[in-house]
From TrEMBL:
One Pfam family it belongs to: DNA_binding_1
Originating species: Chitinimonas lacunae
InterPro entries reported in the protein's UniProt record: ATL_DNA_repair, MethylDNA_cys_MeTrfase_DNA-bd, MethylDNA_cys_MeTrfase_DNAb, WH-like_DNA-bd_sf
Keywords: DNA damage
Lineage: Bacteria, Pseudomonadati, Pseudomonadota, Betaproteobacteria, Neisseriales
Keyword DNA damage part of the UniProt annotation: yes
Highest taxon of the lineage: Bacteria
Key word Signal present: no
Domain spans labelled Methylated-DNA-[protein]-cysteine S-methyltransferase DNA binding: 6-86
SUPFAM superfamilies given in the database record: Methylated DNA-protein cysteine methyltransferase, C-terminal domain (SSF46767)
Name used for this protein in its record: MGMT family protein
CDD domains per record: ATase
C-alpha cells in the first residue's frame, strides 16, 4: 500500500522521537501543522510498513497507551517503553513532564 503524503509527514515526526521519550498523537499532528489530524497519526502508524518506526513512543493525550484491539500489542508497547526507562503511574499513565517530548520543536526538514 502506498503511503499518503500526509502520512509520510506524520511518520517523519514519529521517527524523531528520542529513546526514553513519548509524544501524543495530538502533539505530532500539531507539529506537522495539522492540529485536527491526531487520528491520522494512528492511521499512519497502523499502515506503515517500517520496522524501524518507533510506534511504541506514541501515546494518547492522557499519557496512556491507546488500545488497538490486537492481542498483546498494548502489553508489548508498555514493555518497550519500560525497557527505555519510561515509567507508568498506578493508573497506567506516563508523566509528560518527565518523559514527554515536544515534537513541535523538532519538526524534520
Amino acid at each position: 500500500m502506498a503511503v499518503k503524503p500526509l502520512h509520510q509527514q506524520l511518520l517523519a515526526i514519529v521517527r524523531t522521537i528520542p529513546f526514553g521519550r513519548v509524544a501524543s498523537y495530538g502533539a505530532i499532528a500539531r507539529a506537522a501543522g495539522l492540529p485536527r489530524h491526531a487520528r491520522h497519526v494512528g492511521i499512519a502508524i497502523k499502515v506503515a510498513e517500517d520496522p524501524e518506526l518507533p510506534w511504541w513512543r506514541v501515546v494518547n493525550g492522557d499519557g496512556r497507551i491507546s488500545p488497538r484491539g490486537l492481542d498483546g500489542s498494548d502489553d508489548l508497547q508498555k514493555l518497550l517503553l519500560e525497557h527505555e526507562g519510561v515509567s507508568f503511574d498506578d493508573k497506567g499513565r506516563i508523566d509528560f513532564d518527565r518523559f514527554g517530548w515536544r515534537a513541535d520543536d523538532q519538526i524534520p526538514d
